[in-house]
Hints:
By secondary structure, this protein is of the alpha+beta class. The chain has one domain. 37% of the residues lie in helices and 20% in strands. It has a four-stranded antiparallel β-sheet, sandwiched between helices. α2 packs across α3 (89-98) and α2 (81-87) crosses α4.
Amino acid sequence: MKDLSVMKRLASQQWGEVNRQKKILDGVYWFGCSGHGGYVVDTDKFPKAEDFEVDVFIRYGSSKYRPSEQHFAIFEEDCDWAVIEYLYPEVFSKVCKIWDWDEDNRISLVEDSVERWNKEYLK
């Protein structure tokens, strides 16, 4: 539960007040916030996400942080979201089930987004 609290704090730090949250898998949540949203991922559980790690501050606007909380990455909904779904097929599959999305259509969206915004992750 503590990690969820840290993830929620990171989401609000990045995108504003959290309005919605959805657990995708243990260590992956999707947050909808007042300013934006996306995935917050625990890099201890999903180490391929480490390139997207950001500092989690104790309070929004603070420059202080706990070293033990520095293992989370963000994937913004506009351009980086597809990377976590591309790197981890289990995240992709769970997202499709949760929101009842057609996997064939979704895979095209994921590949197109990664191609456009994050080519370095293409195999």
